[in-house]
Task: structure prediction
Amino acid sequence: MKFATTRWVGSLSLLAALGIPGMALAEYPEQPITYTIPFDPGGESDVTARFQEPHLEEILGVDVNVKHRPGGGGAVGWSEFQSSAEPTGYEMIGVNIPHIIAQPIMRENAGYETDGWKIVTFFHTTPNALIVPKDSPFKTLDDLVQYAKENPQAVTLGGSGTFSANHLGALRLEREAGIDVTYIPFTGTGPLPAAVQGGHVSGIFNYSMLGVQMQDNARVLAVASEERVPALPDVPTFKELGYDIVGGAYRGVAVPKDTPDEIVNKLEEAFAKTNQRIAEKQEPLGFVMTDITDEEVDKVMQQLKSAYQPILEEAKANQ
Amino acid sequence: MTLRLNTDLAAGVFGLLFAALLWFPRESMGRLSIIFPRAILVITVVISLALIVKAFTKPAARRVHVEGNPVRLAVMIVVLFVWWYAIGLLGFLLATAIVFFGLTWYLARVEGPVTMRRLAQWVPVVALLIGAFYLAFTQVLNVRLPSGIWS
Amino acid sequence: MDMLLEALLSILTLEGLITILAGVTAGLFIGALPGLTATMALAVLLPFTFTMSPLQGLMALGAVYMGAIYGGAFTAILINTPGTPSSIATTFDGYPMARQGRAYEALAAATIASVVGGIIGVAFLLLLAPPLARLAVVFGPAEMFWVALLGLTLVASLSSGSLLKGLLGGCIGMLLSTIGVSPIGGETRFIFGFPALQGGIELIVALIGLFVIPELISMAAQGRGALPESGKLKGGAGSAILRMGKHIFSKPINLIRSCIIGQIIAIIPGAGGNVTSLVAYNEARRFSKDPASFGKGNVDGVIASESSNNVMVAGSMVPLLTLGIPGAPPDAIILGVLLMHGLRPGIDLFTETGVLTNGFILSMGFAALFLLPVGLMGGRLIHRIVVKTPFYFLLPSIAMVTILGTYALRNSMVDVFIMLLLGTVGYFLRLIGIQAAPIVLGMILGVIAEKGYVQTMLAAVVDPIPWLRLVANPLSIVLACLVVLSVATTLLPGWLERSGRMAKAKRDEEQAP
Result:
C-alpha cells in the first residue's frame, strides 16, 4: 500500500543520493503535486497519466498524485480548477482539445474559459481515424464518399461524444467532401467496437488507438494526421487522399494563469523527458507523441480555434 | 407517531411538483436533448394525475406511521447537513470529530443520562474510529479530503 | 489442453496464491464500503500491479474485481446499503433477513452463491467464449432500448404495494438520470445554472443517499442499531453455513437460472452488473412458488442476486478478451491494463499469449474459491461488529463512512450534498409509499433507454417511418415481445384476482369433472 510518509522519505533519500546541484537555486518542487484528470479512470487520459506518474515522480523528485474529477465531459473538473486552483505549481490538470474549445462555445454555462489557464504542454495527440467493419462494402474512403453523395444521410458514422474531436472530424469530412452523413454520438469509446462489429453503424470516427486495437475485426480507411501513424503504417492519411482533414484530440496539462515561468519551464521539461521514456510503450498503441510548448501552444490553439469555431457556430445555430 | 395523510394524493402532488421543477427552467434545448426527458415528463404528469384521481376515488393508506421519536428524526436530518457544511468550513478531521462526538452523545442519551466519565472514555474510541478511516482514505486509497480553512 | 495445464501450473505457486488471496481480501473490503465500487477498487489498486509481471498483475486485479463485487453484499445485508450497485437486489431480502436475526444465514447464502457464480462464470469464459462473444455485438441501439424497457418492467414487481407509485418512482429516477450533459445532444440539461451539475447525478451517489440515509434517519428516530441485538445464531455459524449449503444445492434450479441470466446480461455491453442482479432477482420471484415472501426475507432472493452478479465478473470478460468490448465498467480498467502490457484483445490473446490469458481466467476461478474462507470469516467479523457495537457509535460511523465514500467517488462535496438531499427526500417518499428501488432502477435504465432510442431515431432519419427501426430486426422483435410478455405475466395474476375472475375460474375447474 502507498503510505505517503514512506514515499516521502523515499523521494528525499533519492534527492539526497542524486545531490542535485540546482536544488538550491530553484526550490520548486518541494511538496506533492496534484495532477487532476477530469475524466473517469480507465480512459485514454487516465491511462496516460498512469504511464507518466512514476516518471514525473522520478524526474521532479516529489510525489505526483493522480486524482479524478470526472463529469460533464471534463467540464466539472475544469470549472472547479479555474475557480479554485492556486498558482503555486502544485496543482495541475489534464486538458484536452477540442473539449476546451467546444464546450465554452456550445454550452450556456460551462463554468470555465478556453484560455483561463496556462497550458504547459500538449504531450500527445490521437488523430481521428475512420474505421469500418471488416465486411463493409466500403473498401476505400472514395467508396464511402461516393455512396454518401448518392444517398445523403444514409451513411451513419458513430463516434465518441457530441462536439468532440470525433464529431468535429465527421463534420469536417462532410464539408471537405461535400457529403451529408449522419453522425451518431456514443458515450465514450467503450461502446464503439461493438457498434462497428455488430454493423449498427456504417463506420465510426474515432481515434487511431481504436484502429490499432481493432486491426483484426475492422478496416481503417484513413487517419487524420499530417503523416502516417507509426502503428498503422498501411493506412493512408486524409491528406494523401485529397481531403484536408487533420485533427483529433490533443492532450496536455495546464496550471493556473499566474503560475511563475520557472515553474512552468520545469514542468515542461519534466513532461518532455517523461514523453521520451514512455514513447516506446505508447506509440505502438496509436498515440502520436508531441512536445508542444510556449508559443507553439498559442499557435496550435489559434489554429484549431479558427478551424473549429465556424463549424461549431454553424452547428449551434442549427440546433 | 401517526399522521393523517392521503398517501396517493401526496405522491401525486410530489410527482407534479417534481415535473414542474424540471419543466419550467428547461431552457431552449435542442431536439435531441429534450426528446427523452419530455416523454418521461409527460408520463410523470399522467401518472401523478392518475394518483390524484385515485386519491379521491379509492385511496390507499390514509395514515402515515412515523416510527420513533420525531424530534430525533428532525435532529438527525439537521445534523447530517450541518456535518456537510462543517466539512467545507473546518475540514474533514475537525468537523467530523466535533459532529461525531456530539451525535454519539445525543444518541446515547436515549438510554439515559450520560456521565462525564463515560464521555471521557469515549474520546479515545471516537478518535480511533475517525483516525482509522481518515488514514485508510487518505493514505491507502489516496483520496484528498477537504481541509477547509486549514489549507 | 496443454496450454491450460501450463497456465494452471503458472498460477499455482505460493506467490500466485498469495497474490490472489491479497487481491480478494483488498477487493472485499473496498467493495464493502459504500461509494467505493469495483471500478474504483481496480483503479486504486492498479498502480501496485505496475511492478508485477503481466500475469501476476492481472491475477491481482481479477481477484480484486471478484472480491469487490462480492464485498458489496456485506453492507447490503447488514445495513441495507449496496456496497456496489451490483448488490442492490441483495438488499431486498438480505436486510429483512438480518432484521429477523438471520444475518449470518444471509451472509452464508450470499457467500456460497457468489463462489458458485464466480466459478460458473469462469467455466463459461473458458469453454464458450468465442460463441458467446458473437452475442455481444448483436445488441445495437434498438436492442438496447428494448433491454432497458424489459428492465423497467421490473418496476412492477419492485413496487410493493402500489403499482402507480412504483411507476412514478421509476419516472423520477429516469428524470434524475437526465440531469447533466445530454448523452446525444451534448447540451447541458436541468443544471439550474450550477456548473457542478454538468456532471449529473452519479448513480452511486443516489444509491447511497436513497438506501442509507433513510435507514440512518429512522435508526436515529427509533434509537436502535441496524440489527436487533438478539440476532444470535441458531446452533452457531457452522450450522447456518450447512443449512444454507443444503438449501442451495437441494434446489439448484434457482442457482442455475440466476447464473445463466447473469452470463447473458454480462455479455450485453453497457448493461453490466447493475442490471444482472435485478433481473435474476425478478425471475427468481416470478418462478417462485411463494412470490409474496420475496422482499420479506426469502433467502432465494439473496441467492439469485449474489450468484448472478459474480457470474458477471468472469462473464463480462467474454466480449472483453475476444473483441475488446468492455461488458461492465470495471472491465474498461482491465482493458487498459491489457493494452499497457502490450496485449491486444482478440484471438491472439488465446493462442499466442494463451498461457497468460488462461492463467488470468483460471486465477479468477481460484479467487472465487477463496471467497469462501475469506468471506465466511470476514462476514463473521463484520457481522459481530455491526451487532455488538452500540447504536450510538454505529450510527455516526455509518454516516461518516457514507460521507467519505460519496466524497471519494468523484472528490466532490457537491456529491455529498446531493446524496444527503436525495436521502432526506427519499425518507419522506418512502413514508408515502414511493420506494428507493424503482427510483434507482429508473436511473440505471433511463440512460440506456434514452441512448438506445435517440441513436435509433438518428440512424433512421432517412426512413419514411423512423420508429419502425425499433423493430427492424429479429432480435429487437423478440425483445419487444419479451417486454409485453413480462408485463403481462407480472400484471395479469393480480388483475385477475382483483376482478374475481380467478375465483370463478377455479370454481369452474372444480365443477368440471
Q: What stands out?
A: Chain C touches chain B through 64 residues (CB under 8 Å).
